[in-house]
Specification:
Strand 5 (111-117), helix 5 (140-158) and strand 6 (162-168) form a beta-alpha-beta unit. This protein is α/β, with parallel strands linked by helices. Helix content is 40%, strand content 18%.
């Protein structure tokens, strides 16, 4: 078992990964500035409140805690916001990562799992998407992640880093027993927004109903956050055991439209999901679905909670406990 630094571990996916890392027997330290994370998501005693751009403090934490690897989540993630304030995304996502990598270099830590994104592919040539498809992001958020991926490739080549870049699709669901689920502020993800609409009666907006998809709404690969957390654990253990790095897609291989999500929510909750139609959102591709065979074959990972209704049921349980 290893000691692992998790950046952004107070956030949605980060906190789930911390939970499952600890269940797997690993020791964890969380680095988070709490600008978009929640202190309540982090177990007592393991949180270090630090901004990623504080290189010296990060290096000190890595050395003092004798960390053997880093799982790097800390980033801004809202596509719409990134189109309104690209400089914010470059400063935080790219600048913060640069600082982290310098701190790792100073502390002699060279194993890294990076939380990347399917947004790297932009409008894909083929669906399901394989890792060999062109990198062509269509929004500043995707661009910021691609810039970091390129930095990591060069660090692997010239600095002796060993890294895995996980490009994942639509994280969703919850781990209600652990008290963990989606609580972004503002919330931008579809499933918690639809559940909020069910609980409050205030309709959710469906952005675009004229896409070239079977029902006109965007199609996405919805992956349970606990399956996603397990992919990070498989990845870091693979690196710690001397395995090779690379880029891997993380998804179920099945796409669901916005309308299908609305239907699943209505089935699980037994209530109407009120919604209104809105214009297309800038930077949204029509279809994003993963081919994750490379990850399954190389790291032995499998999505075990891939059923959409199971995902919605877990998110619904969390929403009922914690409110809209």
């Amino acid at each position: 078992m290893a000691k692992i630094l998790v950046t952004g571990g107070a956030g949605y996916i980060g906190s789930h990964t911390v939970y499952f890392l600890r269940k797997s027997g690993h020791s964890v330290i969380v680095a988070d500035n709490l600008s978009r994370g929640d202190r309540a998501n982090v177990p007592e005693g393991i949180l270090r409140v630090v901004d990623l751009r504080d290189t010296a403090k990060l290096a000190s934490i890595l050395r003092e805690e004798q960390c053997e690897a880093v799982i790097h989540f800390a980033a801004y993630i809202a596509v719409g916001e990134s189109t309104k304030a690209p400089e914010l995304y470059f400063a935080n996502n790219v600048g913060g990562s640069t600082s982290l990598f310098e701190a790792m270099q100073q502390a002699g830590v060279n194993k890294l799992v990076f939380s990347s994104t399917a947004a790297a592919y932009g409008n894909p040539q083929r669906v399901p998407i394989t890792e060999d498809q062109p990198i062509a992001p269509i929004n500043p958020y995707g661009d910021s992640k691609v810039m970091v991926e390129r930095m990591i490739e060069l660090l692997d080549q010239y600095r002796g880093f060993h890294s895995i870049r996980l490009r994942y699709f639509n994280a969703c669901g919850a781990e209600p027993e652990a008290g963990l689920g989606e609580r972004h502020d503002p919330e931008t993800h579809l499933i918690p927004l639809v559940l909020r609409a069910v609980l409050t009666g205030k309709p959710v907006t469906v952005f675009g109903e004229d896409y070239d998809t079977p029902d006109g709404t965007c199609v996405r690969d919805y992956i349970h956050v606990s399956d996603l957390a397990q992919a990070h654990i498989n990845a870091v253990e693979h690196l710690l055991n001397g395995g090779a790095g690379g880029a891997f897609n993380v998804g179920t291989g099945v796409g669901h439209s916005v309308r299908e999500v609305l239907s699943a929510v209505e089935k699980v909750t037994g209530r109407k999901a009120p919604y209104i139609s809105g214009p297309r959102r800038e930077g949204d591709p029509p279809r994003l679905v993963a081919d994750s065979q490379k990850l399954q074959n190389t790291l032995g990972w499998k999505p075990v909670r891939a059923d959409l209704e199971r995902i919605v049921a877990d998110a619904w349980e969390f929403a009922q406990r914690h409110g809209a």
